[in-house]
Sequence to fold (300 residues):
Amino acid sequence: MARGGYLGEFELMVMLAVLRLDGDAYGVTISREIEKNTRREVSIGSVYAALERLEEKKLVVSSLGDPTAERGGRAKRYFQITGSGLTEIRKTQRALTRLWTGVPQLEGGRA
Amino acid sequence: MNSGRPPRLAVSLLKWFGLANDEAFVGDLIEEYRSGRTAGWFWRQTLTAIRVRIIEAVTRPAAAPRIVAYALTASSILGFLLVNGTVRIPVSETSVLSVAAFLLALAGFVYLFRPTGYWGRVVQRSAAILLMNCVIILPMGLLGGNLGSPRFMFWINVLWFSSDAYRDRRRRWREGQPGSAECLGARRR
Fold:
């Protein structure tokens, strides 16, 4: 279970990136996906640290691919969201949506 | 496209901080580096990964019992040596303190960062052997007045090495990657 029952901001970003990549989620693609959508540089080490925590909580699972030459003979570790991971994302989404709605300052698309 | 090797010192740092045992992580860094990232980018990634690793290692709840266990072991040894005046150890109190402090620091370093690569493995094994022998020999020294029977210590060490080798083989087999612990070692290059 996530800390306090909900996912942290970065953990949520990583999980959403894994979901969006659908089967092609490994360190490089996950960090690129986050960078593309958030427009800020993401460290691969931070991504792995988050994924390690999520794997400990059984929210993601990983499997090793085949080693490739362009990676110096090292394998890729592919990540997938588990059933409880998906439940956790939905739970966080519902909580955030509830907080988001009914806030006058945030309505109309202006900060 | 960058076909060269990543900065060697950065790679060594990754090994020393135990980040090289994750083959996929290092592979990702190399893939990005070879796709056109600069050496500066590699260094930034390395230093950030080390910083994240240190924070994770210290704040992670699972690390706490291990740190406490080793701190307790080291302090018990130190406590026994200082309180029990009947110990016959031909070294000064300052030397004992230095050895205890060194062991505590070594244990902390090894179990927080788990260094990998050839020298990392040497440090890990040496720390484990030192600690095990201290934990067994010192109480025996306290009880018997000598530093343990050599034959007993020999068999304890044989047992330790066998079980360690067995665990290592089993782990490699389970991961399906022979030698995966030394994934960044020069031997694979």
Q: What stands out?
A: Residues 175-189 of chain B have pLDDT under 50 and may be disordered. The radius of gyration of chain B is 20 Å. Chain B is about 75% helix and 0% strand.
